[in-house]
Structure formats: C-alpha cells, structure tokens
Write a structure and sequence with these properties.
The protein is α+β, with helices and mostly antiparallel strands and 662 residues long. The chain contains 36 helices and nine strands. The strands form three sheets. A five-stranded antiparallel sheet has the order 1-2-3-5-4, with helices on one face.
Length: 662
C-alpha cells in the first residue's frame, strides 16, 4: 500500500472495499479492490490464484495493474489488493442504464448490439484462458471514452473459495448469477446467462425501473414465463433476432445453454461483432478461399454425391450445392444412405454450422431418412445416435432468427421423436428449449407453430421431455398458438394433441383454468366439427382435463367465451358426432369424454337435460355393439345417466400407468 495514496472510497460490498487511488510512482489514478482473507495462509493461496488473472489483456477486459497482500489496520484483517489497470471516469453500464430508466428512453438496438458483441468477445477470451467470471453484472462493466465497454472485477469469485462466495455474495449481485452457480456443477456457460440478463436489462430500460427489473431477474431463475413477459414489453422496439439470442442465452439448464464460443456461429452475434471490427467474425480462411473443384454429380445416385461432399469439405459453396441436391435425392423412397453417409451429413452440418443453407438442407436430409427408414431401423441405428441427433438443436440455437431453418429443424425433431432413444437424446441436448424458443420467436408462422406443437406432442411420450416442457411453461405457448390460429385446423389439431400430452403432467393442472384450455378445445370442436383429427384430439384432451378436475367438467357443459357469449359443449360435441359417426377412433374419444363427465354427480344431473346426447349414445351403442373399445365407455356413460351404477368401468386415462396412457 505504500506505493498508493487513497483518494476516495468508491464503494463497499460483501467481499471488500473499492477505492480510487493514485500511484506515487507514476501519479496516475487507479481503482483498487481490497478483498478480506481470513488468515495469511488463505491470503497466500488467493494471491497465487490471482496471478492467473495477470494475463487478462484484451480491449474489452479491464485487467489488473498488480496484486499484493497487506494488513489493513482499520479492518484488522489480511487483505489481498487488486489494482485495476485503468480508471474509467465514465462509470459503468449500470449508470448508463440508470440514466436511460430515469428518462424512460430505450437504448437503441445498434448500441445494445455493440456492447453485447464486446461482452461476448471478452467472454470468449477469458474462457479460453480457463477463467470464469461468475459475478458478471452491469456494475462490473466499465464505460471507456470511445463508448466501448470493458468487463472488470475478475477475481473476487475466482480467488475466494466457494463456501465464502456462497455466504457473502449479496442478494443484489445474485440477480445476474446463473441458477446453477451456487449449486454445483456449473461451467463457463454461467457467464453466458449473466450476459443474457444484462442484455435483457438493456432492452427493458425504457419500460421497467431498477427495482422492478431486479425482482424480475430474481424470479426468472425459476420461471421462464417471466422472460416472455419481459420480452413482450419490448415488442416492436427490438428485432426478433436479438430477442431470440436472449432466449438462447437464458436457458435455465446450463447444459442446454450455448457457450460463448458457440455464440460466435450465430449470424446475429456476427453482426454484433462486426460493429466493433472484431477479428472473430472472419470466416475460416480455407472455406473463404477454396473454390469448387467440380460440380455435384447428378443422376448417379447417393454414393458419388457423398464422395463429392468429402472431397469438397473446405468449400462452403460446393457443400451448399451438394447438400441441397442430396436433400432432393433422399425424398425418393428407394434412396439408401449407409451409416458412414449419415455421419457425414451430421459432420458436414456441424463443421459448417454458420451456414444456414447447409443446416436447412441437412435437416431435410435427416428428416427424409427417418421417414423412409423408421419402420426398418433399429434402436442402435447411427441415425438415432447422439452425434447425429444433437446437431439439429445446435443448428436451431445458431440460427434462431431463421424461420426456414426452425421449420426444417422442428420437422426433423418431430420425425426423430418417433424413436424412443432419439426422443430421449433430443431432451438431453436442448431440443425442447429450441422448439419452445421457435414458437416464441415466430408467433405468426402457422406452419411452424403446427410443426412445433406436433413435435411437443410426440416428444412428450418421454416423461423427462414432458417434465421439461412443463418446467418451461410450454403449455402456455401451446394454448396461445391454439387461440391465435383457431381457424387453421392443422394448427388446432396439433395444439389439441399437445394439450393432451401436457395435461397428463400434474404440475400443469393448476394452469388449466388460467389458460382456458377447456374453452379453446370446445371452440376447436365448434369451429371444425367436420375435421376428424380436430374432434378426436380435442375430445381426448377434454377427457384428460375432466378426469381430475370437476371445474373443467362443468366448463365443458357451459363455458364463457372471451367476447362474453357462452358455449355449451354437449350440443357442439353431438353436432360433431353427426359428421364423424362412422369414424371409430373419433367416436371412442367422444365416449371416453362422456364417461369421465358422468363421474361427477352434479355434472351428470345437468347433462340429463340433453335429449340429443341420449340419442347419440344409444346410436353409438347400436352401431358399435361389436367394438369393445367404443362400447365399454359408451355403456358406462349410459348406465350412469339412466340412474344405474357403472360396472366394469375402464381405467381412466390418468389412472393408467404412464407407459400405457402415453
């Protein structure tokens, strides 16, 4: 300390004090952070660990001038002192956002892009050195004279042991910390979460004050709905690409969150980096300079095309042509691609992840192969391996702003989900989050919404996947889609199927009423009574909702629409039966719904006024007397309605083992 004179105290936190000091050697001003150590042994250990920070020399990183250990007489404690290499008189990003909030003015997207790009570039640099910040927040991001930023305060989380960090980190600081930081394990992706929180905070400066934002960041760790609520406040102000990037950075499970290095492959991040003329946006030199040495061999089958892909692996343009042609070729039913070829397709996608055309073609190829081989492929087929399946969610992360890629990828994931092992892999590598992100980013894309709902329905056969969708509040996305595209039968039948799958998760039951699932399903039947899939899926979903919840059963009888009018379910279902009376699958689901409804005495009493319902059930009893699946539930409902006791009632959907009901 003898080489510095303290000018003023800038702040005091849970882990030490921050002072503005002046060097007695060069008369320059510096910022000194003093961190308390319990004893000399800990101080020496911390000093050795801090030496790793000495190599932090980067334009967007505030490194350290020097480190030393001293005894602080005032606090009667051993201190390790970290002297920052620069003093930033313009303050921090926290102060910039505070000013923006006071003026209720949004930060312009170009500025957000620039600072976000510089944050990511800095994280790439420090992570490659094996350093994790763990305490990244706006007050640790300093503002340089040229409107660049510099991440600082490396060291506190690094040089203090985990036990002390847990107990002494302030609540305010924890707002930006990733959910996993205080619970092992975690890795460098925890810093990506913090950067995502900072980006989210930057885009909400104009609509939320500091206290509200702090509360939202705290809730966000456990409730993904909060993220969508915050993003909805910025609609029309910031691009979908930026919002999609923030969603990607704020995946709650860090294993499904991209690393800073993986973020570099995202087109929007490349745009962010370009604003600062970053060297990281340079394309691979070989790919940028390597010309095509020939043309794609056509009309010769798959083998020559695969050989061409291998030979042209360093030419992006050649690979785009070859993969696009292979996507067309694999549409033909008799096309066969061996295991080596399947691996090559996935490898080509992975090695050219930044090229959206190659990713779209690759997803289409894999989709075509699944469709043609699903009935003959075995569980050990390389097509369903993690190496192949995992490339699709990776492509979705890297091109979250491309609706074409999201559509192709979601369709491929839906096809993959028909295989049990592949469905499990999809959940493990982040496919669930990618599908939900696509729904949230492209709310106006009907085909994509239908594909995503179908994928959710199919993937949720796997209980772990169903839990993931539930944890991410995916039921809300499905219901919003169903309401938004209520006139589109393809979207409606897919959403109804997804509601059916998700209704089997008990944790979703508390949201059924709030999301008006019964109303949506009744309106689907009312709007599309002639559509077999809509009626079938909607009736089965209603049956699943009714079975554990009497309130839902009453809503089936009489439900209020958004416009204040009412919809009576039984007449609408009877009307739909009139169009579907010859379809055994639809009729079976209609009967299952009625069987569940009559289990509630009060509901059953109200049902007895509908003569057309009795006529329908008796017609079914006569027409399907030889169909055991239909007649059992039909007669169970009739017996109860006629005043008798139900006998031999089939096991309800919810009470069956999950393996059976799924």
């Amino acid at each position: 300390m003898e080489n510095y004179r303290v000018l003023q105290r800038l702040g005091k936190g849970a882990q030490g004090t921050v002072n503005l000091v002046e060097s007695k050697i060069d008369n320059k001003k510096y910022v000194m952070k003093k961190v308390e150590c319990t004893d000399e042994s800990e101080a020496n250990k911390a000093f050795k660990e801090a030496m790793a920070l000495a190599e932090l020399r980067h334009p967007y990183v505030c490194g350290y001038q020097e480190f030393f250990v001293t005894w602080d007489k005032e606090d009667c404690a051993m201190m390790i002192c970290l002297v920052l290499e620069n003093y930033y008189k313009n303050g921090t990003l926290a102060e910039v956002m505070h000013q923006s909030r006071n003026q209720q003015v949004e930060l312009p997207e170009p500025m957000v892009k620039k600072w976000l790009g510089q944050m990511i570039e800095a994280l790439v640099f420090v992570h490659k050195k094996g350093i994790i910040h763990r305490d990244l927040k706006p007050s640790n991001i300093f503002m340089a004279d040229n409107l660049n930023i510099a991440i600082g305060d490396f060291g506190v989380a690094t040089i203090m042991d985990d036990a002390r960090t847990k107990t002494r980190t302030t609540v305010g600081s924890m707002n930006w910390m990733a959910p996993e930081v205080l619970e092992r394990p975690y890795d460098e992706r925890s810093d990506v979460w913090s950067a995502g929180c900072i980006a989210l905070e930057m885009i909400t400066c104009g609509v939320l004050d500091s206290k509200s934002m702090s509360q939202c960041l705290y809730v966000l760790k456990n409730d993904q709905v909060m993220l969508e609520d915050l993003i909805s406040k910025t609609t029309g102000t910031y691009s979908n690409d930026l919002l999609a990037l923030i969603r990607c950075m704020l995946r709650r499970k860090f294993q499904q969150r991209p690393t800073a290095v993986e973020l570099l492959d995202m087109p929007y991040v490349k745009e962010c980096l370009t604003l600062s003329d970053s060297a990281l946006v340079e394309r691979k030199k070989k790919q940028a300079t390597q010309p095509k040495t020939g043309t794609v061999p056509k009309e010769q089958g798959v083998t020559p095309v695969l050989a061409y892909i291998r030979s042209e692996c360093e030419s992006e343009n050649a690979l785009k042509d070859a993969m696009a042609y292979l996507a067309e070729l694999t549409k033909e039913e008799d096309t066969v691609v061996d295991d080596a070829g399947k691996k090559l397709v996935a490898q080509t996608m992975r090695e050219n992840i930044a090229c959206v055309e190659i990713q779209v073609a690759g997803c289409n190829i894999l989709n075509n192969l699944i469709v043609s081989e699903l009935d003959t492929a075995t569980e050990t087929d390389v097509l369903f391996s993690s190496d192949v399946v995992s490339v699709i969610p990776l492509a979705m992360k890297c091109h979250s702003g491309s609706s074409q890629l999201q559509q192709a990828a979601a369709a491929a994931l839906m096809a993959f989900s028909a295989n049990e092992s592949a469905a499990a892999v999809i959940g493990q590598v982040g496919g669930i989050g990618s599908i939900l992100d696509a729904m949230r980013t492209f709310k106006d894309k009907e085909e994509l919404q239908a594909t995503c709902c179908n994928a959710i329905w199919s993937l949720c056969v796997n209980e772990d996947n169903s839990k993931m969708v539930t944890d991410e509040r995916g039921l809300r996305d499905v219901c919003e889609t169903m309401g938004r595209f209520s006139q589109n039968p393809d979207v409606v039948e897919a959403a109804a199927a997804a509601i059916l799958s998700l209704s089997l998760e008990d944790d979703n039951l508390e949201f059924i009423g709030e999301l008006e699932c019964v109303r949506l399903l009744l309106e689907a039947i009312s709007t599309h009574p002639k559509d077999r899939k809509v009626v079938k899926n909607s009736c089965m979903a209603l049956a699943s909702l009714v079975e554990p919840d009497e309130e839902s059963a009453f809503k089936v009888l009489d439900c209020e629409r958004k416009d204040g009018t009412r919809i009576q379910g039984i007449p609408k279902i009877v009307e739909a039966y009139g169009y579907q009376s010859n379809n055994a699958e639809v009729v079976e689901n209609v009967c299952t719904l009625f069987m569940e409804l009559v289990e509630y005495d009060d509901v059953m009493e109200e049902m007895r006024v509908y003569k057309q319902m009795f006529d329908m059930l008796k017609d079914i009893q006569k027409k399907y007397k030889d169909n055991e699946d239909v007649i059992a539930s039909c007669e169970s409902a009739l017996t109860k309605l006629d005043g008798g006791k139900a006998s031999n009632r089939p096991v309800s959907a919810r009470n069956r083992p999950k393996s059976a009901r799924r």
